[in-house]
C-alpha cells in the first residue's frame, strides 16, 4: 500500500486532497517536524531534503508535493488536464512561486524573531505573495478552473496554499482575490477536502512553537553560514 508521509501543513494537505479525491488506498505516516522527525535517518532515505510530504508507492519514492500530484495523476489518469503545456506552466507557477513566497510570507509575518528588524524581508515577501495571487485572480476571471474546464491537480496545488491567504496576508486579503476565493470555497466544500484537512487530527502533533520546535523548523537560527 502507498505510504504517505505528512503533517497538517499546506503542501501535504494538497496531496491528501488528491488521495481522498481519487480513492487511492494509502497508509498515512505522521512526521512531526516540530519534534525533528524529518531528520531521522529512516526519513532522510525517503526525502533527503527533510521536508514533507513524500510517498513510497511500493518502492517508488516521490517527494515534493507538486511532483507527487503529477506522479499520482499520471498513475491513475485522474484530475489530469489534456493541455499538458498549460498544466506544467501553472503547476510550476505554484511550485516555484506561490508556495515558496507564501511560505516566506508566513515566516516573516508570524515566526521571525521579533527582536530583529525584518521590515525589508517582510515587505518583499508580502509584495511577492500578493503579486502572485493577483496573477492567479486575473487568470481565473471568467473561468471555473485553472486549466481547461475541469477540476485538476493544478487547482489542488493552488488550494493547499490559497486557503490560508488570510494567515499570510491578513484577514481582509481575500477581498483582493475574489476569483481565487471562489475556487478555494468550491474546493473546500468538497467532502474530500474536509477529509484531507481532518487527516492530521487522527494523530498527535506537537502544538507548541517552543525552542525545540524552532530549532527543528528553523535551523538557520542556530547555524550561521555566511
How many separate helices?
A: 10
> Which strand order do you get reading across the main beta sheet?
2-1-3-4
Mean pLDDT: 96
Sketch the major β-sheet. Answer: 4 strands, mixed
Tell me the number of strands: 4
Strand coverage percent = 5-15%
Computed CA radius of gyration, to the nearest angstrom: 18 Å
The class by helix and strand makeup works out as: alpha+beta
User: Spans with pLDDT under 50 lasting ≥5 residues?
Assistant: none
**N/C terminus separation:** 44 Å
Helix content: 40-55%
Helix-strand pattern = EHEHEEHHHHHHHH
Tell the overall outline: globular
Can you walk me through this structure?
With 226 residues, this protein is of the alpha+beta class. The chain has helices spanning 10-22, 41-46, 65-76, 84-111, 119-140, 153-162, 165-169, 178-188, 191-198, 211-217; strands at 2-6, 26-30, 54-57, 60-63. The chain has a four-stranded mixed beta sheet, covered by helices on one side. Helix 1 (10-22) crosses helix 9 (191-198) and helix 4 packs parallel to helix 6. The model has no long low-confidence stretch (mean pLDDT 96).
What's the helix and strand layout?
Layout: E1 2-6, H1 10-22, E2 26-30, H2 41-46, E3 54-57, E4 60-63, H3 65-76, H4 84-111, H5 119-140, H6 153-162, H7 165-169, H8 178-188, H9 191-198, H10 211-217
Parallel strand pairs: 1-2
Antiparallel strand pairs: 1-3, 3-4
Helix pairs in contact: 1-3, 1-6, 1-9, 4-5, 4-6, 5-8, 6-8
Amino acid at each position: 500500500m502507498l505510504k504517505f508521509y505528512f503533517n497538517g501543513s499546506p503542501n501535504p494537505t494538497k496531496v491528501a486532497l488528491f488521495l481522498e479525491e481519487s480513492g487511492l488506498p494509502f497508509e498515512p505516516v505522521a512526521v512531526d517536524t516540530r519534534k525533528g522527525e524529518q531528520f531521522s535517518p529512516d526519513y532522510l532515505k525517503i526525502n533527503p531534503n527533510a521536508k514533507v510530504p513524500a510517498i513510497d508507492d511500493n518502492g517508488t519514492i516521490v517527494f515534493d508535493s507538486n511532483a507527487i500530484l503529477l506522479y499520482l495523476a499520471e498513475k491513475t489518469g485522474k484530475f489530469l488536464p489534456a493541455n499538458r503545456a498549460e498544466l506544467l506552466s501553472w503547476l510550476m507557477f505554484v511550485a516555484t512561486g506561490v508556495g515558496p513566497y507564501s511560505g516566506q510570507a508566513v515566516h516573516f509575518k508570524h515566526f521571525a524573531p521579533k527582536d530583529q528588524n525584518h521590515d525589508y524581508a517582510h515587505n518583499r515577501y508580502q509584495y511577492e505573495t500578493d503579486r502572485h495571487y493577483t496573477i492567479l485572480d486575473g487568470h481565473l476571471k471568467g473561468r471555473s478552473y485553472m486549466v481547461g474546464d475541469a477540476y485538476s491537480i493544478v487547482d489542488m496545488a493552488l488550494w493547499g496554499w490559497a486557503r490560508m491567504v488570510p494567515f499570510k496576508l491578513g484577514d481582509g486579503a481575500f477581498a483582493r482575490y475574489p476569483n481565487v476565493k471562489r475556487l478555494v470555497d468550491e474546493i473546500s466544500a468538497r467532502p474530500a477536502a474536509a477529509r484531507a484537512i481532518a487527516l492530521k487530527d487522527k494523530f498527535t502533533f506537537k502544538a507548541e512553537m517552543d525552542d525545540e520546535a524552532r530549532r527543528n523548523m528553523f535551523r538557520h537560527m542556530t547555524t550561521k553560514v555566511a
